[in-house]
Specification:
Layout (H helix, E strand, L loop, with lengths): L2 H19 L5 H22 L14 H18 L3 H15 L6 H4 L15 H10 L2 H18 L1 H8 L3 H27 L11 H41 L1
Helix pairs in contact: 1-2, 1-4, 1-7, 1-10, 2-4, 3-4, 9-10
Length: about 240
């Protein structure tokens, strides 16, 4: 998977956990963790140790690191009730799942099966960056994420406009949830029949399946937000009626 899809996955997981557990501190760690393995391993493998390692799925692509993060996160949660490290672990694990690290057992189970394997050519990092830049689907995701960042920084203005349009927003979210659900089914179906979309850069039915699952989670998130908006709209209506009385 490409980096912006990894980031989108982390953001969706972070929003879902924040929504389900009523704690917004999950969002940023999940997002950071979803791209952290590539931010660490690719520079280390390709730039610092090109001759001895020369590969971009090494230390933070291992179960050892993931398990260590979850253990540390569980301890911090137990003592401090702080989910930040656990959220980081969720993001890192999502990255490894999307990368299908079980197909590289020597690296995933490192150091149990020996040293890292998968050495690539010296210009592999630049080839990967070029592939990222030439992927139109990644550009679309980047623009969507940029819109999301702007919406976050201008959320006060946005929320003040939304308060008077809760019913319309509820309908938009309901439609979005339905569209995303259909898209998830189509993507998973394409993987099952081994049809591909060259523009997205995914390969193989497993990648299409996981992409469909991520889209389905986005659909679930939109539906939960739709329910929250609808509930708050009803509460606002009740409060308005009570004032009139």
């Amino acid at each position: 998977m490409y980096i912006f899809f990894h980031l989108l996955t982390g953001i969706i997981l972070g929003f879902l956990l924040s929504d389900l557990l009523h704690d917004c501190r999950w969002l940023i760690p999940c997002a950071i963790g979803s791209i952290l393995p590539d931010l660490i391993d690719k520079p280390v493998g390709f730039l610092l140790f090109p001759e001895t390692i020369g590969y971009g799925r090494i230390y933070t692509h291992t179960l050892l690191v993931t398990a260590s993060i979850f253990i540390a996160g569980a301890m911090i949660w137990y003592w401090k009730r702080n989910p930040v490290v656990l959220g980081l672990g969720v993001g890192v694990l999502s990255h490894q799942v999307l990368d299908q690290m079980w197909l590289e057992p020597v690296n995933w189970y490192y150091p149990l099966l020996g040293s890292f394997k998968g050495k690539m050519s010296g210009d592999a990092l630049f080839t990967l960056i070029a592939g990222e830049l030439h992927n139109p689907f990644e550009w679309i995701l980047a623009l969507l994420l940029l819109v999301g960042v702007l919406a976050f920084f201008y959320r006060e203005r946005f929320l003040s406009d939304v308060r008077n349009q809760r019913r319309n927003l509820s309908g938009i979210l309901e439609g979005l949830a339905l569209i995303l659900c259909i898209c998830a089914g189509v993507v998973i179906g394409m993987g099952l029949v081994k049809r591909t979309l060259p523009a997205v850069g995914w390969s193989g039915p497993v990648e299409y399946f996981f992409a469909g699952v991520v889209i389905a989670l986005a659909s679930l998130l939109a539906w939960r937000w739709r329910y929250a908006v609808k509930t708050r709209s009803a509460q606002a209506g009740d409060e308005g009626n009570a004032r009139q009385r």
